[in-house]
């Protein structure tokens, strides 16, 4: 008999993940939060049950076998509790006969390779790498006659374009960016019928609406690097490594932002905007304001920005991005800032200068825009009613920028603009892109949007 060993999760989120009674628990957020380690610890719960069968998935076998990966982590833990490894089958067997298997699912239809299988526990490491079809099909293999109630455990990092974000949307803030701490570990109930997911706060609600369906309980628990006390202590450089990545990588992997994708967008690149240091004569100049009026708070840590983009057109048809200002503040401070820049811009550009304000749809949007126009009495102001998608409105700017017809005045704001533009529409924010595209469409007399008044 192997010597008895004791391993314990870190207090906090890792312990919450291992303690939840939910049928489906997803542990996700920052990189380095101890998520994969928690999956391996979960395998010990039923190691004395001869009929227990568990399977852990990564999308590919090489990902499973990489240094520091799932199998490597398992080799450091499971043998301490009497498990022996079959390296050919990627399987560990405990002295009781309980088995833990590791597998890849590289191609979407690989899920059918598990037809007829019975797994009391199914685990997905990095759930965003799997397709929705793979995940929900494997749920049909989550069954057991060994006395263990079938359950599923998943880990994941954030990704804006992933179906996983839709699955856990209730546990995120109003913008779908960050996990709500007050909902961490809260259980809801889910039914899946005809590829549609239905939710309720209690199983009885779903049973009444979907006769014959058996609801499963679901929870989401956010992970943060600070939850992994061992990694923070033994490898403090890891945090610095995450901070050295791109802004998108930092937002996603360090801060747990679900409104970011790693991949750059298809619309803008830094070299699209040649830098200049002196401004030639301009025919038209527009400062376009894409407005928001929320300050960061505990309940909304990363609200949208108010962004004001100043863009001009030269006599020979070139466009120049002159300046961008952005802020996150109260409605009153936003109005005051718009007025302040209006006075500075008009002093420099005179009658060539116009202020443009995006008008939100509906009566309240119209009323708010009219109020701001009144506040800016004495200035030439255009109200823009945006139509179509953000991508549609940004397309004319992208086309001209790609042929180097949009120059950029050198300034300290350049770096933040390029970082957002290159990630559009995959980034956490698109306020600057909206503002620059709005200014461009007016200056270029392109009208994908309707606006009040005429040039």
Notes on the protein architecture:
It is built from 15 helices and 18 strands. By secondary structure, the protein is α/β, with parallel strands linked by helices. The longest helix has 19 residues. The radius of gyration is 27 Å and the shape is elongated.
Using the coordinates shown, work out and report the CATH topology of the largest domain: Rossmann fold
Q: Approximately how much helix is present in the residues?
A: 25-40%
Number of domains: 2
User: What is the oligomer described by this structure?
Assistant: single chain
The CATH level-2 architecture of the largest domain is identified as 3-Layer(aba) Sandwich
Spans of at least 5 consecutive residues with low confidence = 448-455
| Strand-pairing-aware structural class | alpha/beta
Radius of gyration: 27 Å
Find the count of extended strands (DSSP E, 2+ residues). Answer: 18
| CA-CA gap between termini | 87 Å
CATH superfamily of the largest domain: P-loop containing nucleotide triphosphate hydrolases
Rounded mean pLDDT is 88
- Strand order across the largest sheet: 3-4-5-2-6-7-1-10-8-9
Shape: elongated
**What's the helix count?**
15
Strand residues, percent: 15-25%
Largest sheet: 10 strands, mixed
